[in-house]
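Sanity check record (used in CI):
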Amino acid sequence: MLGSSPVTAFLPSTDPVRSRAFYEGLLGLTVTASDGFALVLEGAGTTIRVTRVETFTPQPFTALGWVVQDIARVMSQLAEQSVEFVVFEGMGQDADGVWTAPGGHRIAWFKDPDANLLSLTQYA
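Expected output for VOC family protein:
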């Protein structure tokens, strides 16, 4: 029923200006709208709506992720921009913070300015 309809992802933010600097300025997404209620971004055909909220509690799971061809290269580029990668106790991530899933996919996590958990995945 909805398989051919465009998808919009939603993320909360307490500071849309800070979110815009991160998602547009640092990650390179394109802003398509900003109206005081939400910042709307485009990323490779997916719409991401960063919605203004007064308060929220970040969730412990991944809220949004990107599939990349070369996770080491993208992590290096993000680290150059002061992005810190999350290491989870007991996950068995390597020294760079990359976890290799049983099927061989490589995954790394980082947070946006509101502590939404984001990920990079390089498929095996």
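The longest helix spans residues 16-26. If this sentence no longer matches the regenerated tokens, the check is flagged for review.
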